[in-house]
Amino acid sequence: MSSSSSPVEDTLGGTAGRPGSRLRSPTFRRTRSLTGIPLLWALPGVALVVAFIYVAFGAGAWYAFTSWDGVSASAPWVGLDNFKEIVNDPSARDALWHTLELTAAFVILVNVIGLSFALALNRTVKSRNWLRAALFAPVIVSPIAVSYVWQYIFAFTGPLNSLFGTLGLSSWQHDWLGDPDWAIWTILVLLVWQYAGLTMSFYLAGLQGIPEELDEAAAVDGASTAFRLRRVTLPLLAPATTVSVALTTIFGLRVFDQVVGLTEGGPGGATETLATQVYKQGFVQGRFGYSAAFALILTALVAIVSLTQIAVLRRREARL
Amino acid sequence: MGLFRYTIRTFGRELALILIAAIWWVPFYFLITVSLKPADELYTNPSGLPSHVEFSNFSSAWEGVGGVTLGDALKSSAIITAGSIAALIVIGSLCAYAIARREGRISTGLYALFVFGIIIPFQLGLIPIYVTMRKVGLAGTYPGTILLYTGLLMPLAVFLYTGFVRRLPRDYEEAAYVDGASRLRTFIRVVFPLLRPVTATVAMLATVIIWNDFFIQVIFLSGSPRLTLPVAVYSFVGQYASQWNLVFAAVIITILPLLAFYVFAQRQLIKGFSGGVKS
Amino acid sequence: MASVALKDVSKVYADGTHAVHSLDLEIEDGEFVVLVGPSGCGKTTVLRMVGGLEEISAGELTIGDRVANALGPRERDIAMVFQNYALYPHMSVFENIAFPLRAQRANRAEVKQRVESTARLLGLEKHLRRKPRNLSGGQRQRVAMGRALIRQPEVFLMDEPLSNLDANLRSEMRGEIIKLQRELGVTTIYVTHDQVEAMTMGNRIAVLRDGLLQQEGRPQDLYQEPDNLFVARFIGSPPMNLFRAVLQVADGKVVCRLHGDELVLPEGYLDRRAALGRYVGREVAVGVRPEHLRDARIAPEHPRLRGEALLVETLGAERQVHLRLPAAAVLTQEVLDVVRDFDAPAVEELRAAGDDRQAEAIARFDADAEAAVGDTVELGLVAEKLRFFDLDSGASIK
């Protein structure tokens, strides 16, 4: 926005006191302008980001191809051995599989439920703020801490089973946390419970961007509520959907706290995820190279899945 | 408005939602009741209200584990969170201002650097960071952890600030220049106060993220006297596993600060989280 | 095709505000009725109640031969054109117009045929694939109309459809809407705050103010015989001139005594105006339209008043002379309400001036009439066209 000076203004010296008028005098423009903000100011920020994100990323990626133990001075190169081990080791493959199925289920459920909440909440008037606050609250509680509450709920002698008992549904009682078939779904429940409020807030924000007139016009045009939802509301929610699905996917792939809090990866590795493996292999077993390999796979997964998603969803958006 | 003809139907919907919200809060119900129960009632009366309130659960929980009380952990969480936020705001706003107000390929490139930085998962880089910090003696220290969080959250902070600064009219800065202020003074006195909404958003998002973060804190602060609340509650459970009343007391102590904060700043918080949708 | 009848219809919001008070209005089949009034007068609320977008708090709404209070918008067989058109931004013109048919699950062939013929009717055939954001204001308006027309509804509701268009487009679209309505013969209720639009478009107009119906009837009737000060001042551009005078009888003649002058009315003036007789000795508001303030130099037969020229505007076909009259201005709530609609800050100024303010008027003279700022102008008031109003109630004295 460098201001061009008119010859008249230059001769007359501009109107005194008018902001920016001195900027237009030739001598002034050379000494000060907004483009003169020193790039130096950006240096600390850039340095921090380069160091902690980019360099660290590069170093970590490199370690994935070594068998480093984190202590010794040397990090012997092993090429693709770590990855081969991951592919061949059934527990490693399981961790990958758990991550994927958990993420898929999580993304679908948390978005569907969050959207339903948002649609329902958008229409209520009186208790709307309370409801929104109540449903959003779990988002900001410490995941690891709140996992223990759910550990209590899912315990074999816990309230969930006793509820089924009193309702006469004893066939529904399970050893939720101890049964390898069920354990992973307890994590799903906890994740959905914690983050449905977040997706709800995304969709609410999106809904607020849709003028109410459109829904009214559709109603006047004779469209049923379902038809309005399908043909008007949902397509116009596409930007919010993109954001919500992308973010929940990235988050699901990285899940850690809730696994540690609920099952610690058990029983017998039935709920290990990529992130827990990164932690355990590296910081418990000391196999930093192996841990880095897991982390690299996690990163690659996040990159591939989220980029494809965003591409697909954005193309849908553009078509609308 | 007027489309909602049958108030019975809307009333029913509202009722259903209230019911769902109530069910949604059942975990909190257990959290509170169990934390106030004496130990024996855990099995004799698992789901009901406590017969009498046992506040000693809280004082026991407060003792923490391994000589680190929950009070210490709370202090650590606070120090690390506050320190990181301060650094994020100062460094981030200056950095974003420099980028947003400049034209040219360098600044566009730098902006891209930050945007990508948001997407890149940090888990991979954590390993070399940990090792390096340990070598340098920064692991398990306040400055080290603050530095780490500042670096990891900087892309988000810069992203938010840049967007806002770009939309800020330059008139105020120009007026300050005409009045003879230096660039730094202009920034501090004129621009930064105008950035209050973004600063609030950055502060709130960072507070929730850092305060609740477990992965980094368990790696960097386990065993350190400066461990934070998430780590403290994890170790606490490690020791007192099935003493749910004590565990839940510890959980409440852990989540209470942010919940209290939430009660006051709830609208702003939700807005901060869902702000990205507008793009 | 149907008639619409509102009987004693009211709208009260949850916080107690009365948007509409006991409205009685009948609209015949095929009529074009305009609801007009300043912002906030309730006209859009009435429209939305007819459309089913607002709950009717009291009274009965009949569409055709059915009582419609409990029916949803879908069941009422009405179509609505919204002020901001409410076009579906993610759908093409074709899809926008087709939407009502798709909502009724019409088959593809029928949809195609009807959409295309509607588009042809509105001149949109070439734009069917475009999205609303790539259309001009006028085109968008037509798409909105097309979407409403395609359903061949019983009643057409229009909520200020032209207010977002520029002046030229507005007059062009006005004509098109009138033409369309006449061709199709659909019962139409049209809401606007522009009284010029109201006057030119409707078979009948209904003036609303603060939720109350002021007067309804043919445009010319409201123009020539306004029922109260509000209608008098609201309808007509330039507005009806108003000033205060005390009615007196002297030597058998009726005299209006103004502050600085007096107006002698013709013989037997009160004979045909019985109600006016009761106001002798009291102050009333006198109204006279600009075209009935004649140049006394060429029309000396009328009762005279002297005014001071403040401004002379030559408008090609006529000369509008703004004058200060030797009389007190009429500043009742009705008049202030009209002012508030287009210049809210001025209301405070006027109210502060209070009783001291002198009345101003606009006279329509011939284009070649001689008049200059500062001149004392001799005005001839056409006595037959004078209208009188009660200053307390605002009602006209007939």
Number of helical stretches of at least 4 residues of chain A: 15
Instruction: Describe the main β-sheet of chain C briefly.
Output: 6 strands, mixed
Distance between the termini of chain C: 38 Å
What's the helix-strand series of chain A?
Answer: HHHHHHHHHHHHHHH
CATH top level of chain A is: Mainly Alpha
Shape of chain A: globular
Tell me the number of structural domains of chain A. Answer: 1
Strand order of the largest sheet of chain C: 6-7-8-3-9-10
Bin the helical content of chain C: 25-40%
Which regions of chain A have little confidence, pLDDT < 50, spanning 5+ residues? 1-23, 26-33
Q: From the 3D structure, determine the CATH topology of chain A.
A: MetI-like fold
CATH superfamily of the largest domain in chain C: P-loop containing nucleotide triphosphate hydrolases
| Domain count of chain C | 2
Helix run count of chain C: 11
Strand content of chain C: 25-35%
Rg over C-alpha atoms of chain C, rounded to the nearest angstrom: 25 Å
CATH topology of the largest domain in chain C: Rossmann fold
Average pLDDT rating of chain A: 84
> What percentage of residues of chain A falls in helices of 4 or more residues?
55-70%
